């Protein structure tokens, strides 16, 4: 059976980025973890940045798959949005690489990490935008700017899940869903 060196390199780099962060990961380190020569890495990837992009792209696909897994066609749009966002943020808070990247951005402000985290956020917003456009077309929700609505949904969800907990008791999934419906999906009007 042929050894998939590319896969071994990606797995080793993922492990290194997850343990040490982007800045502290070197191609020598990845080569040692993958048990390949450093030159072998360069047959597949031009540099550390390209390898990092490959890993983050796979991570985004995995996140979207996780969100898709919790969507149920018969449920109301608001419930599916809540379920998908909750799963995305749960994934983000439990995945070792995401945890390390968020920590590195916060502590060191590494530009490449900030750019990749922005890429992840952009992909989540694009995913939500697509779902919102479908819901608008089906008449499940009123017409609104899908991209702005996606942005607001994500930011509000992050605020309720992460930022609120800094000074308050964590909110239950049900309470977050209720707040999302009241403030964003239904509005404040009576």
TrEMBL record:
<dbReference type="GO" id="GO:0003677">
    <property type="term" value="F:DNA binding"/>
</dbReference>
<dbReference type="InterPro" id="IPR009057">
    <property type="entry name" value="Homeodomain-like_sf"/>
</dbReference>
<keyword id="KW-0678">Repressor</keyword>
<protein>
    <submittedName>
        <fullName>TetR/AcrR family transcriptional regulator</fullName>
    </submittedName>
</protein>
<dbReference type="InterPro" id="IPR036271">
    <property type="entry name" value="Tet_transcr_reg_TetR-rel_C_sf"/>
</dbReference>
<keyword id="KW-0238">DNA-binding</keyword>
<feature type="domain" description="HTH tetR-type">
    <location>
        <begin position="3"/>
        <end position="63"/>
    </location>
</feature>
<dbReference type="Pfam" id="PF00440">
    <property type="entry name" value="TetR_N"/>
</dbReference>
<feature type="DNA-binding region" description="H-T-H motif">
    <location>
        <begin position="26"/>
        <end position="45"/>
    </location>
</feature>
<dbReference type="InterPro" id="IPR050624">
    <property type="entry name" value="HTH-type_Tx_Regulator"/>
</dbReference>
<dbReference type="InterPro" id="IPR001647">
    <property type="entry name" value="HTH_TetR"/>
</dbReference>
<dbReference type="InterPro" id="IPR023772">
    <property type="entry name" value="DNA-bd_HTH_TetR-type_CS"/>
</dbReference>
């Amino acid at each position: 059976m042929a050894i998939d060196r590319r896969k071994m390199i990606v797995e080793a780099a993922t492990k290194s980025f997850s343990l040490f962060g982007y800045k502290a990961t070197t191609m020598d380190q990845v080569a040692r973890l993958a048990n390949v020569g450093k030159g072998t890495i360069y047959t597949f990837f031009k540099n550390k940045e390209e390898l990092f992009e490959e890993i983050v792209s796979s991570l985004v696909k995995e996140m979207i798959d996780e969100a898709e897994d919790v969507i149920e066609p018969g449920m109301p749009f608001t419930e599916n949005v809540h379920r998908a966002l909750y799963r995305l943020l749960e994934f983000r808070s439990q995945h070792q690489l995401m945890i390390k990247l968020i920590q590195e951005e916060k502590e060191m402000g590494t530009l490449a990490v900030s750019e990749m985290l922005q890429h992840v956020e952009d992909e989540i917003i694009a995913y939500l935008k697509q779902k919102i456009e479908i819901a608008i077309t089906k008449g499940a929700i009123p017409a609104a700017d899908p991209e702005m609505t996606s942005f607001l949904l994500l930011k509000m969800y992050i605020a309720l899940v992460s930022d609120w907990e800094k000074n308050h008791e964590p909110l239950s999934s049900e309470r977050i869903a209720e707040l999302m419906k009241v403030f964003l999906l239904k509005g404040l009007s009576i």
